[in-house]
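Data deposition worksheet. Section B asks for the primary sequence of the deposited chain exactly as it was used as input, without tags or linkers unless they were present during the calculation. Section C holds the resulting structure in C-alpha cell form. Section D is free text for depositor observations; keep each observation to a single sentence. Incomplete worksheets are returned to the depositor.
Section A, Depositor: J.P.
Section B:
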Amino acid sequence: MKKSKSKFSAFVRLLQSTLAAALGVQNRKNHQRDFKAGNIKSYIAAGVIFTVLFVLLLSLVVKAVLHAMA
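Section C:
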C-alpha cells in the first residue's frame, strides 16, 4: 500500500513541477528537489505531453472562435 501511495505522490509532484515550469513559477526549493530526486526521462516526457496537449487545446479554441465568427 505504501509503495502505490509513494508512486502517486511522485506522479503528483511531477505534474506540479511540469505545470509550474510551464507557467514559470517554479520555486528554487522544488527545482532543486526535482533535479536531485527526479528522473529526467519522466520530466522530459511530461514536458512533451504537456506541450502537445497545450497546442491541441489552443488550436481547438481558435477553431471554435473562428467557427463562431463565421
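Section D:
The two ends are 54 Å apart (CA to CA).
The first helix runs from residue 2 to 23.
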